[in-house]
## 1
Amino acid sequence: MEYEAVIGLEVHAQLSTRSKIFCACSASFGSPPNENTCPVCTGMPGVLPVLNRRVVEFAVRTALATSCTVQKRSVFARKNYFYPDLPKAYQISQYELPLALAGHIDIELNGGTKRIGITRIHMEEDAGKLVHEGEFAGAQASLADLNRCSVPLMEIVSEPDIRTPEEAGAYLRRLRDILVYLEVCDGNMEEGSFRCDANVSVRPKGQEKFGTKAELKNMNSFRNVEKALEYEIRRQIERIEDGGKVVQETRLWDAAAAVTVSMRGKEEAHDYRYFPDPDLLPLMVEEAWVEELRKTIPELPGEKVARFVKAYGIPRYDAWLLASSRSLADFFEASAAVYGANPKVTANECIHWKDAVAAGRLTPETIAHAVEDRESGAISATVSKTLVELAIETGKPIRRIRDEKGLTQVSDTGALEEIAAKVLAANPKEVESYRNGKAGLLSFFVGQVMKETRGKANPRIVQEVLKKKLGV
Amino acid sequence: MAITREEVLHVARLARLALSEGEVDRLKDQLGNILDYIRQIDSLDTRDIVPTSHAVEMGTPFRDDAVHPFGDKEAILGNAPDRQDDFFRVPRIIED
Amino acid sequence: MHEWTLLEAAQKVRANEISSRELTRAVLERIERLNPAINAYITVLAEKAMRDAQSCDEALAKGLVRGPLHGVPVGLKDIFCTRGIRTTCGSRILQNFLPPYDAAVTEKIAASGAVLLGKQNMDEFAMGSSTETSCFGPTRNPWAIDRIPGGSSGGTAAAVAAGMCFAGVGTDTGGSIRQPASVCGVVGVKPTYGRVSRYGMIAFASSLDQGGAVARTVPDAAVMLSVIAGHDRRDSTSVDIPVPDYLAATEKSVKGMKVGLPREYFGAGGLDPAVRAAVEKALASLAEQGAEAVEISLPHTEFALSAYYILAPAEASSNLARYDGVRYGYRAETDGGLIEMMSKTRAQGFGAEVKRRIMIGTYALSAGYYEAYYGKAQKVRTLIRRDFESAFSKVDAILTPTAPTPAFRLGEKLADPLTMYLSDIFTIPCNLAGIPGISVPCGISPDGLPIGAQILGNHFREETLFTAAAAIERAIPLPRVAPL
């Protein structure tokens, strides 16, 4: 029988705010233990949460960028459970009435696009971190570091519209690109600022009803999400085909062993006793505020790709490579504005030098002038590469380097004819072979001329001169 | 309304209260009586009534996204029943 | 000296008729003499109070008046956090807790120039109506030592009634200021929810908790409330509305004021005849001064107690979950793992009443019961709020008894929690609606026990309460300090 998977993803994105969601402690990563704590985020008696405005702004902008409907009134609730990394013994989250509902993201798959629904977006606080003394199983004690408590998170829940691990990967990359574009999340999966859990089930192809799902956790890269899903789908199908049943459970991805492992028995039956947090009033997001925030939404990757293809006539694949980073895309456009006669070459150059662009070591003029000079025949491709490297190294304008080093290309036919004659005279055997039909030797002569001119000759003109001299 | 011993034990587990046998018995009766009294609200028809969760009717206020470090880590860690360096120390986590 | 009102004491200090040190020393001596019997204070800050008094005197010598209560000694319920000073909430679980911060109320008291005498006894986590659930032992009523002082702010009410401070600050979740004020013969005011910042005030039921003043006279209570009221950005439920001149309101006439008498309150079973008679006398005094009595109905009153005993324990079960032995407070000795440590800590750290309420609240929120209990109670809360909205479209104030009976005997209701809960039957609806309420003495029972009348007002109309309460106080003169 043929099976298909049904996948829904829950993404937790850490919002790039300066302070925490409910107190004025720093939300930064990597401080000494318990450095970024105060009475509020360590759950001391009597102290109270006050909502960080920027957290709401970031979440609203994400909602708008994913076509969600922002709710005028949403409510923070308490999710109650005991754990030493959760100081108040409840997490402030949104439950029944989240900030945003019913959006979507379009993903690209082998030329086509597919729309993945977004169920909801809500805000919540992160928990702290536990360090175990020695090996977990034999640990005598655990140590709690509460720096991460109350760091703002945004949870984005997809509809179960995803059918393959590839689609899941495409959705996650697309979502991350959007968050990074909006500058609301740094998108770093390894450091945990972009985390993903997956709900996955399988069903015979054609069947409407969903199968029993498993929840997958602990996948800390896009590749791991895809691998974990591949494994889990295979596992569930095999289980069904062996006459067994899939159990509803949470499974952890073990990246080293490349398997998912049941958490059964390690997780107690949860009863979170959600109720509206009496310490926070309902969150009211007025239409005017939403409209103000809508104006701050930049052109998103998908829109940018479509525009690049149309406006610059560059291949879709290249457009995606450029659009994968907002700064690279902006750089490309700036270069193309300086010299726009051949955007395809400009795009290639930008992609080639993307690391230097990201590091801020190249100006759009450098690429534009390099491309323009090459197009005009003033420099060769080889010299162009050398010049860009020198520009990165020295920070000087590329044309000044060109002139200082005298690297302008020789296109003077007279001068080249002299050198060509010299080269042909020095290689009589090769000339004879060429004339006897070994046409491939032309590039040998071109190379020799280039060597004589130390790369400054225009290869196109060199070829013409040589052909004429060789009498072909 | 009767509440069973098992329910009392379940709720005590949720609330992380290690109750003695005597407490469980007493609470079983007391909670039963209190719940009996409370359930008189069942007689009210509240179908179209909007719930009230706050005594004030306004939107939650905001704070600006500015960092003001608390600055006295020692006062926070100083209350810890058990600490190791700058961590709060807790007994090993044994799963039930 | 201890019989002076707060206003008199403040005036005398400012006029250099007495130094803050003399005044503070006199009250400290009275505390030293009476506290062993009454147990109104958990912590007495004798040395600190004398140092602060000296600093007040020095400031005054330079012509500096810090605020309206400059140099006057007052007390705080031990629910308000005080930086570096033990704050227990009457619980073993916090018996050694040193907050690294001050509550907003603590800051405001300091800013008023008052001298803090100490932290006053209370029912554990403010759960109780008799101050018998404190882990520091019960407080006794200065009017009759074998009787309860009410609760949960019983330590504060008893201290004020016994002249062991000039005024105090308590908290009121279901009557915890008004009911002890009533049974101790003093004035207690719970303002509109959102008036007094809850920052640093240890939470019992966050949507109902509100700080308020306890004092010997209505003008004293008015001054005390104006000191602690006001907007605070650290409390998201704090309301940004200017605080009016409450003291001026105590001098206004009640002429033309419409006073509602809810028939559900006066028809309640269990209402002591002496209480009824005293409240009727209070009404008569208002009528004599030109107020108009109007019979009204608050039809959902009988459901208020049920709704309260779902909502308050539910919030409490969550608010008190943080006491887990990890970061501060008591931790049980155990060889077991984490869950055992937490469960034993909480079982040993909390008293019987707190555990009972945590159990009720946890049950009411647990899977399968939420709608039937919590959801339903929230809707009842809406109905009770509407009852008051409709009443206040017809009247300016509502007059009721504060408590159904005068002070009962210690231990009398401890064994039966439900009977104890019924002591708050007249005070609870006010908290559910978030409106202000005041209790003012209006008589003495045949047994010689004080009786209070409760006046309720519309949201942010505390001034109406002060006007009416002051009119009753002027018409019915009663001893300000318990005859000890």
Note: Strands of chain B lie at 62-63, 83-84, 87-91.
## 2
Amino acid sequence: MSKYILKRVLLIIPTFIGISLITYMMIRLAPGDYTTLRAGLQGELKAGAIGKEIYEQERKLYGLDRPIIVGYFDWFKKLVVLDFGVSRKDGRPVSGRIAEALPITLALNIISMIIMYIISIPMGIVSALKKDTAFDRITSLALFILYSLPSFWIGLLLLLFLSGGEFLNLFPLGGIVSDWAENLPFFGRVLNVAWHLVLPVATLTYGSFAFLSRYTRANMLEVINQQYITTARAKGLTEKRVIFVHAFKNSLVPLVTLMATLLPGLLGGSVIVESIFSVPGMGMLAFEAILARDIPVIMAITSISAALTLMGILLADILYSIVDPRIRLEAKV
Amino acid sequence: MSGRQGYWQSVWREFKKNRLARAGLWVVLFLFLIAFMAPLIANNRPYIYVTDEKVFFPLFFEYPEFKDIDFRSERVPGFKLFPPVPYSYSEYDLDSIVSPPSLRHLMGTDEQGRDLAARMIYGARVSILVGFIAVFMYVLIGIIIGALAGYYGGWIDMLISRFIEIVICFPTFFLILTILALVGPSLTSVMVVIGLTGWTGIARIVRGEFFKIREMEFVQASRALGARDSHIIIRHVLPNALAPVLVSATFGIASTILIESSLSFLGFGVQPPTPSWGDILSQSRDFMDFAWWLTLIPGFAIFITITAYNLVGEGFQDAINPRSFRGNT
């Protein structure tokens, strides 16, 4: 057991080095070296000594004056101790800006994930038990439609109809906490934040119900037809016990790994949702950095989100090996 | 060969039984027709123009004498037969800015007085173009990489699998945005970047199928007969691994169209004046509270398109995978 986990944990090291290598090369080898992009934009590059000086400074700042391998190692050494340099937009350390943004996005995504699981798993189970009934057909079609609705469109419509605008004014226009919330007691502040998060979380969540509930349904159907379920029924257990204790537990297994596959998509989805609802999380930070060609921030976000996904996959693998011993036995051979 | 034909025929038979999938296929064909015929549906020049007993076809041929003429003007005499949408996608009509749908402008106009119907029709071209070319690219890359790993196994497979694992960790949408910001957004770069980043799913499917198929007797027989690897891969293994790849590609087109419209929505997709549904939607943000047509029409078009491709994908999946439609009761 511990041997399998150790092996899995050690394997993330080469993967992480690969991630950092791709991140660095992508930026470094991108056509149109980005320092000229910035210096050139202001028409300073060819304007003589000053432009030249700025250009040289910029190149030095990003290690472009050194060979690519040396530049990579310098960047990697700093990456390991979480030193991402300073943002070129406001000169603040990138790590500080990320420390502010990351908890917001993580909270947003964890809440969405919990809601996804709470809603889709029961729906999937009921659909499986009532296979091919009207309930099964209608829910699967409804979830399918939700799945196909583009989130940026729904986000806009929610904003239009539910917050301000000409219609209902139920939710705030954006942000995660009101200015006036500072004076509220702790519980009041929590409520205020929750009130701000309703629309972003809804937009982030609705599309995933279909996938998860159909997945649960398929697993459940597979499990129900296993022999041990027939045995359980033959023993005279109540149907409730058969479904919830024997079947449900085993249909949960693949849902664990699913969490890992959902992670990178969620972070990507945050870019759109956060920019629509002005949530100051990683997605918004990322989008602003991209707009401003803020290279240190872009590189930091790319490597951090990839590393987080890597952790998610690792966690799922370990959980999987705990719930399904066959996995680690196979790995041993 | 006839066996393979029989297989695809039976897949088609199963597909046809599925009502929703059939509907999806009709929508897809309809969109194709619109995209293909866009210049014939939305154009500010008439099909036929008759004046002074002479017949012209201004939409099909260039006539120097009509170079800067607005055929719709009442001052141009004669018989004119216009396309259903008598506007081009980029012409301004400053007299009717942000006007609601009417007989003159079937879907209304945007903030520059451009006809929305014409822009929607040309936008269909962009979404189909990006959907198909980007997916074709990544299916090709995925097949090559997955086939190498699955057919040869061993250290080649180990290297490729590690590489796939690394690429999967990157948040795709953010990666695409970043690369587009660095190389500059355009129709071509959107297609290429999606094509270069999207292949991992296909590669994994192909790898898995190849693992299964390469051990089968007909492959071993072919190997025993002395066939080259390339021959075995292309003639024997790949055709048998193709069905799940095509299903995944169909879903891929849906998600690529979604990615393209999201990119255009954020300003990193197709650049103006080329119309894209995502871009139209993004422009509508400033007039949302009264110009409902600018928000609802492009959003609905994206939704219908994605739904159609997903339905076709579902139907296709059920058709090649008998277990899921027969159920296992």
Note: Chain A touches chain B through 54 residues (CB under 8 Å).
